[in-house]
């Protein structure tokens, strides 16, 4: 299964990708997580990327594409992946198509856009907390940790992302609004795009995604071999 999840900041792409990777037996590949890991190690790429992320702007393509290409070349992504946060522009989408073609691998099976209105996005982002240690995600109201500020799984400390500050979120929403339409059109023309309602419990959203995946999802779950499709 080669799946892309689109949607505004805080729509639940990461939450759904994490749930889906177990169901579909393919890894989540989140451009934001890859960038944040580069920022943490203070690599040259991370230092450069942070300048854009702190403002809520898109990181230049050459930096993001380098990370994505490296990640997709890892063995666990050979039979599929769930891309979360990438592509974000038509240029990135075209590069992904060329990248898959260049590797002789199958093209995308599906692109799913999770639709969530701005007022709900603000609630979701302001309450999000992430474990510093294992990356598990919580929400102060919708999915609170059992112990204040501590991860249920590993007892790690929970933190709020730097780019979840109100001004930065506003900028991220503006960037999304400016870039989503061409991307939706690009994948719409390719016959790959389904839009789903992102309001409801995460399990309900998951069911909508599985329904949208249709046969492709059923085949992936049954462990059916990849069939070349261009
Ligand atoms: P990135 O990390 O990709 O952030 P994003 O797209 O803004 O999305 P988020 O991670 O904020 O939200 P999400 O949709 O994953 O929601 P989540 O599941 O966490 O990008 C960050 C930055 O990196 C960008 O601004 C840019 O600078 C750079 N970048 C990344 N990719 C790039 C690219 N391709 N090109 C250029 N630059 C790039 O859920 C949010 C909260 O809601 C959580 O607390 C969760 O528990 C809760 N929640 C989830 N689902 C539900 C539900 N159904 N009901 C109630 N609460 C829910």
TL;DR?
This protein has eight helices and eight strands; from the N terminus they run βαβαααβαβαβββαβα. The protein has 230 residues and is of the alpha/beta class. α1 (13-24) packs parallel to α8 (202-221) and α2 (31-40) packs across α3.
What's the SSE blueprint?
Elements: E1 2-6, H1 13-24, E2 28-30, H2 31-40, H3 44-53, H4 61-72, E3 81-84, H5 90-102, E4 110-115, H6 118-127, E5 128-131, E6 137-139, E7 158-159, H7 166-189, E8 193-197, H8 202-221
Parallel strand pairs: 1-3, 1-4, 2-3, 4-8
Antiparallel strand pairs: 5-6, 5-7
Helix pairs in contact: 1-8, 2-3
The chain binds BIS(adenosine)-5'-pentaphosphate.
Structure description:
The chain is of the alpha/beta class. The protein has eight helices and eight strands, in the order E-H-E-H-H-H-E-H-E-H-E-E-E-H-E-H. The chain has helices at residues 13-24, 31-40, 44-53, 61-72, 90-102, 118-127, 166-189, 202-221; strands at 2-6, 28-30, 81-84, 110-115, 128-131, 137-139, 158-159, 193-197. The strands form two sheets. It has a five-stranded parallel sheet, with helices on both faces. Helix 2 packs across helix 3 (44-53). It is globular, with a radius of gyration of 17 Å. Mean pLDDT is 91; it is low at 224-230. The protein binds BIS(adenosine)-5'-pentaphosphate. BIS(adenosine)-5'-pentaphosphate is lined by residues 7, 9-15, 31-32, 35, 52-53, 56-59, 64, 85-86, 88, 92, 124, 127-128, 137, 139, 142-143, 163, 172, 200-202, 205.
